[in-house]
Amino acid sequence: MKVLRHTTVLLASAAFATSTWAAGKPLAKECGPNNDYVIGFSQANFKEPYREHVNHELERLVKNYPKFKLVIADGQASVNTQVSQVENFQTQHVDLLMISPYEAAPLTPSVSAVYKSGVPVIELDRKTTGNDYTSFVGGDNREIAKEAGIWAAKTLMPEGGEAAVLEGLPSSSPAIERLDGFKEGIATNPKIKLVAVQPVDWMEDQAVTVFSAMLQSHPDIKLVYTSNDLAAAGAYIAAKQAGKLDQVKIIGTDGLPGPSGGIRAVADGQWAATYTYPTGAAQALELAKKILIDCATDVPRNVTVPTQRIDKDNAKTLYGKEQF
Predict the structure, then answer these.
(1) 18-138+279-299 adopts what CATH topology?
(2) What is the C-alpha to C-alpha distance for residues 281 and 64, in angstroms, rounded to an integer?
(3) In the predicted model, what is the mean pLDDT of the chain?
(4) To pair with 43 at 20 to 30 A between CA atoms, which of 67, 69, 126, 173?
(5) Nearest Cα to Cα of residue 150 among 186, 192, 191
């Protein structure tokens, strides 16, 4: 079992830059243990299994914070919808804004406006552009993908061959970082040739279509790295339809639990590996507590959640533990 320890960050770590508010001034306009607080969360969408997993974790864990009311809004994979949600949250005077932006740049002005109005902003999993947010909570997407590339280069394709990438939504920060990281990792083996890269917008049906076309154009592909587990599931379907399951190794990203998640797919031998991408729900709520309840004057600028590779050596054990 491998845990990427270098991605673990403690909330109190002094090694990270803190938010840029004036020293000694609480981050929240109103704070303290006696008040009740509303946290508005604009989720990128409710369709992706990972997004549903994040929502469920937040709803479960927020019960530990009786002073918090959490309102989760469905961004519906629409920039316009999320912009309206952010503006509505500001109008409703939420005490803290959380957001997973569907796209980075288009959401930046509205998030920036909330931040500049004095409302703390926690960006979860995905970032806007610029620096107008209080803290970012998420995995180190570039490092996760780099580790995947290095592991694949050494373990799955030591003799080289052709590889492909199914990218997520190319205008989102995780998709960009995961693509760049995997390219860097796979380059450690010069005998591997990356022959095809194409976005599938995180969607399984698009992954089936795109990877089917890739296999027709490049019938010797031996490895496909996917930016999320839904894309990995689509790649598996395409490889099966092409009669190439014995040839193509699949790596996912998310490592979701449950019978339809990535851990089960690796345990069943469908994929070579997946990398867990924890929700960050616990870390985000703890940050909210520090800001709203404890009247923190600064918090870490970045809180990086740890990840773990799931492969044939640990998948069955980990999936078995989920059943109890």
Answers:
(1) Rossmann fold (3.40.50)
(2) 12
(3) 92
(4) 67
(5) 186
